[in-house]
Amino acid sequence: MKVQEAKANMLAEGIIAVLAAGFYWETYHFAEDSSLNSFGAAFIPRLVGALVFIFALTLFFQARRVWKNAPDEERAKLAAGKSSKGALTRAFLFIALMLLAASLYEYLGFMLTMPWLMFGLFCLAEKPEKRRYGLYLILSAVSPVIVFFVFYYCFSLLLPVGVLKPILTYL
Amino acid sequence: MKKIFAAAALVALCAATAWSAPKYPRMAITLNTHKAGTSVDTNARILARYLNKELKTNVIVNNTSSQLDAARTTMNAAPDGYTIGFVNNSAIIRDVVGATDFNTVEDMDIVATVTQGFASWIAIRAEDAKKWNVYTLKDLFAYCEQHPGELLISSQRNTNTGVAVSQLISAGLKVTPADVGSTGDRLTNFLAGTPQIFVGAYQYIRQYVQMGEVVCLASCSRVRSKYSPDVPCTFELGYEVTFPSVYYVMIPKGAPQEAIDTLSTAIKKICENPKYVKDLEKSAQEPFYQPYGEAAKYLADMKQNMISLGMGPGYQKK
Amino acid sequence: MGGMNIFFESIGTLLTTPTYLVMMAAFTALGILFGALPGISVNMALILALPLTYSMDTETAMCVLLACYIGAMSGGLISAIMLNIPGTGSSITTTFDGNPMARQGRGGEAMGIGILTSFVGGTLSFILLLFVAPLIAKVALRFGPWEYFAIGVFSITMIVSVSGDSVVKGVLASLIGMAFAMTGADPVNGVSRYNFGFHALDGGIPTTALMCGMFAIPEMLKLVMNLDDTSIEVRQMEPLRGFGISLGDYLRRWKTILRAALIGTYVGILPGVGGSSASLLAYLTEKNRSKHPETFGQGEVDGLIASETSNNACVGGAMIPMLALGVPGSSTAAIVLSALTLHGVQCGPLAFSQDADIIYLIFAIMFVANFFMIAIERVMLNGYLRVLTLPRRIIMVMIMMVCFVGAFSARNNYTDVFVFILGGTAGFFLQKIGIGRAPIVMGYILSGIIESNLARALSISRGSFWAISSRPIAMAFIVLAVFSLVSSLYKSQKRARAQKTAS
Predict the structure, then answer these.
(1) Which residues make Cβ contacts (< 8 Å) with residue B22, sequence separation at least 6?
(2) Which run of H or of E encompasses C399?
(3) What domains are defined for chain B?
(4) CA quadruple C20, C22, C26, C29: dihedral sign
(5) Which residue does chain C place closest to A89, by CA atoms?
């Protein structure tokens, strides 16, 4: 394991170990069941939880050893190293946009959610000077409508209609 | 002036169209059901096809992950009459054993029952029949009396099959239930030799019975099934073991009465359609129409019966 | 020989009836399109095609459904190779070598080989199906819950082999996948687990949403975070001639092809195991047999051949228990079986004598549809290459829209869209620390097989785990699993020591 990976690994494996402990603990809150089988609903989850905890801790200590054994200068350099704030901001915005779209999907419907989501993603995925807003607008506006009606008329699959239900009444 | 005249004509046309169009249904109806490939889905698709023609609208089958999910999705949908659910009484079993977060009978309106079928037949392999000298259900009971707990009987929790197996055990069959999954899994394991007793739908074993590889001992019903007229039913043999599968259509509470009445009438007509009856034969079902009101009472009685048999407390609102 | 006569008559009927030909061509193309779109699984493709068959006669309906099935199974390779997003679960292993080939500018070659080898795999399994289906079906009966449990465990240990250098991370990845699978009602007792009162999760985390999320979201995040990175663009490709590989070169790999076809067919026969396990087992078999296993995952042609041959061979295999026993071998086969029931066809051991016309017609349709598949994909291949030269950033946003459709529509559940996003985000971060997506998804898929079969096995053996020792096939897989794990650990240690010595 390289030194620069060790720090990220320590953090991640630590989080996984904590989650695994929580996963194991939650098995004690399962409803009781009178199984026809000799092991109940909690057996495999406990086994998996315990193993994940053990493996995550093993990796945590492995990463910690690499980090501790690294020369002081290298550690200081890595600790001072700036992660790309722009990249992280865009990643955060991407996730936030997707979650917002998922939250409003039921209420707005497919045809009102996709356009702004797609436009936002097009903009996030390209440098400002290279963006083609006209193309993005056309693609964002037209493709959801085409997809919606193709799926409905050709395959009898009704995507969420949301607030457009009264207007789409005569489908 | 021309523009005003054109707009007025357009409005008049829309009004005329709206006035002459049927009040319900005006748009596609979504029918929530179990996942694709299951017998519930098959029956739902058969029904949807006929509802399409009867209601002259698109009835779209939406597959969910389970019958409870289908019921819950329907219950939570807008009560505008355009979302309905199609499940069978396995959903009520889960209610009875306390595995639901809602009342499967009272928390929604039951439009009508549609079909019913005998869910469970009891069978053993021909080579086992020869080995044990068991050719009737009574023989099986006698054999199990002499070898209590030795034989395994295939079962599946919280399903019609599971209920039939519980009833058989209550009737005195001394076997050990083994939960081996869905009917397909039960059949595969049964054909391989364990469990020794198969309980499940007849269409799965029909061909094996015809080939003589499997001996069908009884159908879990009050009368003989027309799909297996040579096979006695449990009631005629003196065992009160029966739990038919009943399929029904539900709608969210508060849906317009017009929608409920239209759907119920449509289902009645469909159940009287000979083509539909023929289609149902493919999945060993027969029409069983009970209208709005009676259907809910029928299912409520079924649920109460299960509770009084000690199967569970039923859904308790917290 | 009566069956063979009916089969050839059926071929003749298919080739001389324009309706059947048109339907097969159209729905193979549609199936390929669905298979290529991430988020639209094979099952969904069939569910979408099913209502169209209601007004058709049985023969035409079979042409539509089976052509769609074959097209969809093969179509998964397109997005797997070009976008690194498997279109279907059985295309996960295609991403291991197919996408690296695309990044090296060999995308056309990868697609050509994938198409050819899909055809060969499918054809070999159909030939097997034709001659020995009822006999092979009996093999499925020798596999009970203990055997399935053992295969599941063995497959999990094999996953470790594709997890890169760290065995521990490989095992951890598959365990994390298993943990994801434990959400929802447990497969045997129906007890709700890890839904935290959120009943929309009672059905568990859906495969389509998770798989789509794990592969598509990280690709999108990479684009968003690296605006300057041009290496993500698939390199410009020349129009392809032939299938990207000479006949001699392809035939030299006949052992790989045959092994993968047999593994795919055999695993397909086993109800509940599935195409993703088949392609994984075939891929890892080739990797372990190879003199240069280090080339696997870097654009190795044998890896691509093993993956695509086996996943299409699985289609024929899955038909065997369905037709010969009346037991669906996979959830896809369950949909096909349900469609057959809707059209009045009863599958089972007597089907070959009582409904021989329909059964051999089914074989004939699958055989002919395979030819349509290769023809359509080959003709469209240069078109796909041209489409994929469009800016990847635009393509990926369109893919996000399709993934929204697929994630929601699989179960008509809004929660699944959140699973798609959050699962994918988690997959991205896990990937950053060397925990691969493929082992997570495979662990997720295998968890159900392991848990439900262990529960059933213990139910049958009345709680005795030692009953497994009386099952030789199961014991063989357990021994192989232990050997596979120990061997991976040993190789990993050896590699680590070699690296230490070199540095």
Answers:
(1) B56
(2) helix C392-409
(3) 23-117+245-308 (3.40.190.150), 121-219 (3.40.190.120)
(4) positive
(5) C225
- Distance of residue A171 Cα from the nearest chain B Cα, in angstroms: 6
Contacts of C45 (CB under 8 A, 6+ apart): C30, C31, C34, C35, C68, C69, C71, C72
Distance CA C286, CA C438 (A): 18
In chain B, which residues have their Cβ closer than 8 Å to the Cβ of C142?
192
Preceding omega of B177 cis (within 30 degrees of 0): no
Q: Which residues are registered as beta bridge partners of B248?
A: B87, B113
Residues of C in contact with A98 (CB under 8 A): 217, 400, 421
- Helices and strands, counts by H and E, chain C: 20, 2
Helical axes C472-502 vs C167-181, angle rounded to 10°: 140
Q: For residue C27, which residues of chain A lie inside 8 Å, CB to CB?
A: none
List chain C pLDDT tens, one digit each, 503 residues. 577 888 899 999 999 999 999 999 999 999 998 888 888 888 888 888 888 887 788 899 999 999 999 999 899 899 899 888 888 788 889 999 999 998 888 888 999 999 999 999 999 988 888 887 777 777 777 888 899 899 888 888 887 766 666 788 888 999 999 999 999 888 777 778 898 877 778 888 888 889 889 999 999 998 899 887 666 555 556 667 788 888 888 889 999 999 999 999 888 888 767 777 888 889 988 988 888 888 888 999 999 999 999 989 988 888 888 888 787 777 788 888 888 877 777 788 777 777 888 888 998 999 999 999 999 999 988 888 777 778 888 989 999 999 999 899 888 889 999 999 999 999 998 888 888 888 898 889 889 889 988 988 988 888 888 999 999 999 999 998 898 888 888 877 887 788 777 76
Q: Which of residues 157-176 of B touch A (CB under 8 A)?
A: 157
B60 vs A158: CB contact, 8 Å cut-off?
A: yes
The model carries a pTM of 0.86
Neighbours of chain B (3+ CB pairs under 8 A): A, C
Domain boundaries, chain A: 3-80, 85-170
> Would you call the peptide bond into B195 cis, given omega within 30 degrees of 0 as the criterion?
yes
Size of interface A-B (CB pairs under 8 A): 24
What length does chain A have?
Answer: 171
Q: Cβ contact (<8 Å) for A36 and B157?
A: yes
> How large is the C-alpha radius of gyration of chain A?
25
- Give the closest-approach CA distance of C148 to chain B in angstroms: 12
Minimum distance, in Å, between the CA of residue C214 and any CA atom of chain A: 14
Find chain B residues with C-beta within 8 A of A168's C-beta. Answer: 27
SS3 C279: helix
Chain B residues whose CB is inside 8 A of the C202 CB are 65-66, 68-69
Helical ranges in C102-246 per DSSP H: 107-141, 145-159, 167-181, 207-225
| Residue at token pair 């459709």 | C405
In three-state secondary structure terms, A158 is coil
CB atoms within 10 A of CB C245: 18
Cβ <8 Å between A170 and B30: no
| Distance between CA atoms of residues C294 and A91, nearest Å | 33
Compute the nearest-CA separation of A157 from chain C (Å): 7
* Distance, CA of C107 to CA of B170 (rounded, Å): 65
| Residue C191, SS3 per DSSP | coil
Q: Please list every residue in chain B whose beta carbon sits closer than 8 Å to the beta carbon of residue C144.
A: 188-189, 192, 194
ipTM score for this prediction: 0.90
To which residue do tokens 């997707």 refer? Answer: A98
| Alpha carbon of A43: minimum distance to chain C alpha carbons (Å) | 9
